[in-house]
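User: Assemble these into one structure.

Assistant: Restating your components, then the assembled model:
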Amino acid sequence: MSLTKKIKYKYIAFGAGNFAVIVGLLVIFGWYTGNWQLKSVVSGYTSMKFNTALCIIFLGKSLILNSVHFFRKLYVISLACTVLTMIISFYTLLEMFNVVGFSIDNLFVPDRDIINPGASPGRMSAITATSILVTGVAFLFIPVYNIRLQKIGQYMLHTVSVITFVVILGYLFNVEPLYSFNISTPMALHTAICLHLVSSGASLINYKLGITGLFTGDQIGNILARNLFFKITIAMIVISYLDIYVEKYRILNTGVGSAIFSVAVMVLSFIFIWETSKNVNNLQQKKDLINERLNLIFEALPNALVMGNSDGKIILVNRETEKMFGYKREELLGKELEILLPQRLHAAHPGKMKSFFVNPFSRNFGSNANLYARRKNGEEFPIEIGLTPLKTEDGLVGLASVVDITDRKTSEKIIQEQLRELKIKNQEMEQFNYIASHDLQEPLRTVANYITLLEEDYPNEIKGEISGHLSAMKHATTRMSRLIKNLLDYGLLGRNKSLNLTDVNHTLNDVKADLNSLVKKTNSVIITATSLPTIFVYETELRQLLQNLINNAIKFRKKDTAPVIYIGHDLKDNVYEFYVKDNGIGIEEKHALTIFNIFQRLNREEEYEGYGVGLANCKKIVEMHGGKIWVESNGDGSTFKFTIPILKP
Ligand code: ADP
């Protein structure tokens, strides 16, 4: 809200600046062309002098630049404009006191209109020069960071606004002393209007300061001031104008005129007071409503809210506090805050509270802070707490929002416990896997050795059917030994993993190089559909993953069809989704999940050799990265897809 307000005021200041520049330019044009309307507005009245017009243009320009957002470069130009105005007005004042010899009054154009006898032609009036000088000085203070100087500048602008307002009224009421102040030649009407707009507009730049702040604020007083000031001013001007008119033309005798004037003022005052009190009442009602709603929210909040003053006394609690701590509201109000804390924390609490009031900013203490509170029945419980300082009529108070985190702590503890158990189980599994695979190899080796011994020792007896049986046994033991090795490798996969920033294009090139002879033998074509990303991965494992998938894509090719494999990726919701698409034999949907289990194979060994471990490895590798792997197949080959989230080491 305050931002839009700020912009609105800057626009007004900008408009005032532009108005002054345009009027100043018109007057200068008037001086060069001899047009009296432009110079004096009303025939026979004082003209705006050429130098005054220059000053008004410079002040207007400076105001425009000050109201536009502040750039260093623009600042220099606005400063130059301000200084020029100050020099011209100050020099003119010096001329008045005969301090300087050279006159700048008719420097640009000669002034031949003798409207005020005795006045130096072409010289601005003393009030004009002073007002311009004061405005110039105030302009210097607008952009400074020192608030006191800004305030001084603001009051200087107010002074000019008041003087010029009186001059304008003087012209309106046609009362000469008001526009000449009886001490100098009069200020021209349009000079007064321009200076009034410039000084009032400039006071909007630091709109919170000085009298401007009274009109721009958001409090009830400010709203009333805005409403009343303009109404009263206009009403008084109208009444005064009528009064002067009546007196001048002697329409009523003096007594009657004054009486009517007083009655009019009283009636108007009454109307304004009536309206104002209605407004105040309305605002009060709204405030009460807001308070009531706030109270409802305060009571309905699921957190315990406890307000304490700087003496450490509880001054307000909500319903949840009663529920959480087991006290009735009356038992808490006015008591020390320590009543809600475990005994062992009582001694340290006043010191902590003091430091909060010395340094009153909002702070949160989460579950890591290990804070505890105490219920009426003496039970301690873990809490999370947020502290906020609040300014109230009774001074600074602290509002504590308390959450009972017993349940969360319990679940955290359970999860920690389960994690620990899982880790132990995992270690046990790894150990078992290792020992089992190792020990199983031993009897297998013995069987294989005995087969070799039989073949060597009985070359004559072993032939025909027996020889066939023995070589089947040999084949079975070799396969069993491979299976056990694969199982061992699967168990060890990713043991010493470390994340590395890897260009997946490079990894793929390495894999292609390794598979080169197979690719050539099978006339396979591998197409990289998109340039692959550079990401954090477990590099060795990723290579194994790609190798398995490409190897399968070639292995499970259709007879008489050369494999064509597409590899690419997409970035979806901050996760890289890779795919390896082939034109092979495809996979039935019902097997889409089971093929990722260890030792799961769909084809006979004679057709496609293998052990059913490759995809299980792939799954483990992808899950190690926190990703997912799946297959999509439509009969025309299969597409293996896997995701790798964006990881950081
Ligand atoms: P292996 O390749 O050693 O048999 P995998 O675990 O790599 O074991 O694959 C499991 C099974 O999934 C394979 O036996 C095969 O039936 C099927 N399969 C894997 N990749 C493909 C593919 N690209 N096209 C068709 N079937 C596949």
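The pocket of adenosine-5'-diphosphate is lined by residues 548, 552-553, 556, 582, 584-587, 595, 600-603, 610-616, 638 (CB under 6 Å).
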